[in-house]
């Protein structure tokens, strides 16, 4: 295998789903890196890379390629502005009082609140890698002159594990991977949807919650904890950093993965679920369509015409139509073999980590 003069900055202490992808990418690219102690010409890193590392890379004359996660773009609201101190809070509130100025003040608020750290890192970059077309469209208004490539996340299709699936006509086994810190993942609404289906229809849904922490997202009712604990149709699995054999087999036995997540640039949990053979039912929001294509059903979403959006501090999401969602789930379940074959095809042609790694390597080679 030919080796090249580059390095990948990878932090093994990070344990999020996105970092699981970056770890997999790192190990797939490692065999292509020259095995010497010479200074590397190019460094590939995630946007969470320490700024000090980027400064050292610039001083050393390295070319920097940064993989971009999502920036924040919250619409101004009283809930959002409560994060700011006086008098800044009232200065930013002018964007609410004068709608024609809203976007300017919203940019300032989001920059001060969260975005400044990502902006600083991106300014160091010679090339950006966006995880989806949607992510590119969001970020380009800020960095129109940065060269970029769009590359989705990928994974390793688990051929041996995916074969454990057996269709159960008596119930629908749905999987979700839990996230307790982002309200926009809409985990709470998904759980209430499952309870509604089991109570009001003739369908029997068994919900598998993977990575459950016992915590709930901000603004959620504490009643949710007792519902999860006491509902017999909900099975929880503890937080994990990697998929071991038992966890993988459990996930692969589910019928499908369901998510109501809003504006996620590239939800890696969707890739991980598909790597276990699961088709997807989701809202057509953010970058999910770049992953799923026809390997599931994407429901219509309203988040196409507004840049600033209330998704962290206020609920500006598409209302859940319970019937539309269950109809989509039933359609996937009734055509499960067809959809599972489509999932496998997506990996063979696009999502396999080896194919994704080759795309990253082609970008790196341009700067050597």
Question: Can you give a write-up of this model?
Answer:
This protein is of the alpha/beta class. It is built from 16 helices and eleven strands. The chain has helices at 17-30, 51-59, 78-81, 88-92, 94-97, 102-124, 133-139, 159-162, 187-200, 223-230, 245-252, 268-274, 288-292, 322-334, 336-351, 353-365; strands at residues 6-9, 42-46, 63-68, 127-130, 148-150, 172-177, 205-212, 234-238, 256-259, 280-283, 296-299. Strands 8-7-6-9-10-11 form a six-stranded parallel beta sheet, sandwiched between helices. It has a five-stranded parallel beta sheet with strand order 1-2-3-4-5, with helices on both faces. α12 (268-274) links the parallel β9 (256-259) and β10 (280-283). The longest helix is centred in the N-terminal third of the chain and has 23 residues, at 102-124.
């Amino acid at each position: 295998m030919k080796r090249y003069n580059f390095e990948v900055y990878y932090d093994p202490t990070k344990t999020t789903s996105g970092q699981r992808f970056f770890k997999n990418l790192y190990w797939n690219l490692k065999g292509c890196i020259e095995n010497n102690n010479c200074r590397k010409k190019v460094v590939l890193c995630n946007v969470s890379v320490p700024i000090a590392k980027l400064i050292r890379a610039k001083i050393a004359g390295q070319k920097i390629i940064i993989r971009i996660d999502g920036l924040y773009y919250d619409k101004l609201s009283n809930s959002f502005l409560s994060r700011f101190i006086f008098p800044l809070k009232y200065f930013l509130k002018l964007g609410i009082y004068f709608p024609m100025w809203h976007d300017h003040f919203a940019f300032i608020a989001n920059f001060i609140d969260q975005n400044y750290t990502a902006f600083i890192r991106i300014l160091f970059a010679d090339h950006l890698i966006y995880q989806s077309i949607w992510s590119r469209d969001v970020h380009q208004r800020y960095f129109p002159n940065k060269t970029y490539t769009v590359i989705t996340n990928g994974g390793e299709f688990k051929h041996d594990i995916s074969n454990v699936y057996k269709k159960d006509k008596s119930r629908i086994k749905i999987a979700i991977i839990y996230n307790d810190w982002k309200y926009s993942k809409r985990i709470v609404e998904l759980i209430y949807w499952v309870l509604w289906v089991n109570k009001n229809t003739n369908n029997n849904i068994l919900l598998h919650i993977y990575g459950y922490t016992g915590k709930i997202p901000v603004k959620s009712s504490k009643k949710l904890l007792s519902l999860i604990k006491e509902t017999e149709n909900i099975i929880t699995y503890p937080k994990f950093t990697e998929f071991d054999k038992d966890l993988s087999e459990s996930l692969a036995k589910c019928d499908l993965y369901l998510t109501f997540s809003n504006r996620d640039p590239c939800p890696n949990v969707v890739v991980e679920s598909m790597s276990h053979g699961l088709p997807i039912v989701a809202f057509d929001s953010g970058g999910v369509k770049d992953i799923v294509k026809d390997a599931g059903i994407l429901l219509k979403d309203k988040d196409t015409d507004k840049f600033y959006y209330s998704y962290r501090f206020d609920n500006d999401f598409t209302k859940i139509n319970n019937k539309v969602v269950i109809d989509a789930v039933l359609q996937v379940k009734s055509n499960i073999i067809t959809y599972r074959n489509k999932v496998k095809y997506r990996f063979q042609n696009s999502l396999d980590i080896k194919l994704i790694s080759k795309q990253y390597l082609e970008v790196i080679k341009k700067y050597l």
